[in-house]
Amino acid sequence: GRGGGGGCWEGMLINAVCGFFGSKEMLSNTQEKFSVALFSRRSRYRAGMRFFSRGIDQIGNVSNFVETEQVVWSSAGVSSYVIVRGSIPLYWQEGEAIVTLKPQPEVLRGHNHIAAMTRHLDAMTQRYGDTVAINLVDESGVEGPICEAFRSTIACAYRGCLGSLVPDEWGDSDTPGLSVRYIGFDFHSECGSMASKKGSVSLSRFLSTLEPHMERHGLFFQPAPAHAEEVVNSTQKGVFRVNCIDCLDRTNVFESAASLHAFLQQLATLGLIGEDELAASVFSLRNGYRIPCHRIEREFKHMWANMGDRVSVQYA
């Protein structure tokens, strides 16, 4: 060997990521070239398959924790946006998973749910900044009890975190509890089938209520060297943490829709669409219409669908 230390392993170990990568070169409506890449990085902690790996451990790791980053770059610079998914941060299981296709989630007794959840969400705020937990599970039926358990536990752990406050009302983000918010959205009740215009409009209108949080979170932007003195660099200061029961289908739909809003802002930041086109696109999304740059939207959604399929296979 070449002596002690980590250096002796250089060239022998290969860094690998479990998740997804896809990239696409596109053209703006003004025929300017730009590229989009989508990365999904699955946590190596609390690994396991759907139905058998659920919830949280005492360290604060959750099942099916996946960080997704979309990167857009052009001659003007590079921008990225991050969104995260992860299992409901409680101790829970589905004991009937081997005998029914719709097992009832069961919150486990005898565990300190608040301590584990606090470790998880505190780690998230340290890594990502302000964390908005978006809970998409049903508020009634078999999912009702775990939905209420999540809501009540996070309310105990982070006083004042419930509801979609305007970011200015958060106050000092260093104040305990104010860097975490919880927002519930009964996806099945509000949207029904996403194939319908009603479902698409319902989700878009929910996203419009989250726009103040998106604005507060911002985007990462690094201008190209030629523009470095003209534009101030920015970083993303917060994240949406999204869950349903599996953190698959409903989560995929929400994440792709939220990321489309961010994508439009990235295009505007890079000068690939103008402010008028951005405003028209946001209006179209809110009302279920096709956006002006519909060709770009179609390619974007195709990339997100491929990512969702791959992440689903890895967990399911």
Structure at a glance:
Strands 1, 2, 3, 4, 7, 8, 9 and 10 form an 8-stranded mixed β-sheet that branches. A two-stranded antiparallel sheet has the order 5-6.
What would your notes on this structure say?
- The structure is a single chain.
- The protein is built from eight helices and ten strands.
- Helix content is 35%, strand content 20%.
- Residues 170-177 have low confidence and may be disordered.
List keywords for this structure.
alpha/beta, eight-stranded mixed β-sheet, two-stranded antiparallel ribbon, 8 helices, 35% helix, globular
What topology emerges from the helices and strands here?
Elements: E1 19-27, E2 33-42, E3 66-74, E4 77-85, E5 92-93, E6 106-107, H1 113-128, E7 130-135, H2 144-157, E8 180-184, H3 187-191, H4 197-209, H5 211-217, E9 220-223, E10 238-243, H6 249-269, H7 275-286, H8 294-315
Parallel strand pairs: 4-10, 7-8, 7-10
Antiparallel strand pairs: 1-2, 2-3, 3-4, 4-9, 5-6
Helix pairs in contact: 1-2, 6-7, 6-8
Low-confidence stretches: 170-177
Please state the average pLDDT score: 87
- List the secondary-structure elements in sequence, H or E: EEEEEEHEHEHHHEEHHH
Largest sheet: 8 strands, mixed
Helix content: 25-40%
| Net shape | globular
